[in-house]
Amino acid sequence: MYLRGDLKPRHLHLLVALDDFRNIGKAAGHANVTQPAISKALAELERGLGVKLFERSARGVNPTVYGECLIRHARTMLDQLAQTRDELRGLVTGTSGKVCIGALSSTVNTLLPQSLVLLKSRSPGTNVLVRENTQEVLLPDLWNGKLDLLIGRLPAMHAARGLEEKILFSQPVRIIARRHHALTRKKNRELGGS
């Protein structure tokens, strides 16, 4: 099929320009090519597809139903190419990318928002997807590469299964009891102590 091998970005630009200006001369001026070059490229495209894309008149050109379909998709493809170019540029310069973060519910309201603010301040173009769930659901996704990282408190045994662990902060654990409770009279208040 013609679309598979012979449709080029210049054809996409041509279709969009013809739709925008509805005039071969103006489209040629916009594209910095001659009118005969535009006419030839359009004829080549119509011949390859086997359908008429534009109706020509003394007032200019108007897309046919086939032309409207192809123009709509041409705009989408050009937008995707521009987004791809921007994303690649961002990856090369380190200013964008995509990261998928798993978060245990204990971190969603505390550590995660601070981390996202820091990430966005350093790399505003990075897209972040956050999945909140339990470790039983998120750990297999981390091992299988569906998540880039997981934020939360995990048992130490998981580090041995090929995961690297970074301690982000230490938080003291406290027991809070009423004033005259038996624990307040003990000198050694460690858990399990006597």
Structure explained in plain terms:
The chain has helices at 2-5, 9-21, 24-31, 35-49, 65-93, 105-108, 111-122, 135-143, and strands at 54-57, 60-63, 96-103, 125-132, 149-151. The chain has two domains: 2-89, Arc Repressor Mutant, subunit A (Orthogonal Bundle); 96-194, Periplasmic binding protein-like II (D-Maltodextrin-Binding Protein, domain 2, 3-Layer(aba) Sandwich). The longest helix has 29 residues, at 65-93. Helix 2 (9-21) crosses helix 5 and helix 3 (24-31) crosses helix 4 (35-49). The strands form two sheets. Strands 4-3-5 form a three-stranded parallel beta sheet, with helices on both faces. The model has no long low-confidence stretch (mean pLDDT 82). By secondary structure, it is of the alpha/beta class.
Distinct helical segment count: 8
* Number of separate domains: 2
Uncertain runs with pLDDT below 50, 5 residues or more? none
First-to-last CA distance: 82 Å
CATH homology group of the largest domain: Periplasmic binding protein-like II
CATH architecture verdict of the largest domain: 3-Layer(aba) Sandwich
**Strand segment tally:** 5
Strand content: 5-15%
What is the CATH class of the largest domain?
Alpha Beta
Please state the average pLDDT score: 82
Gyration radius, to the nearest Å? Answer: 30 Å
User: Which strands sit side by side, in order, in the main sheet?
Assistant: 4-3-5
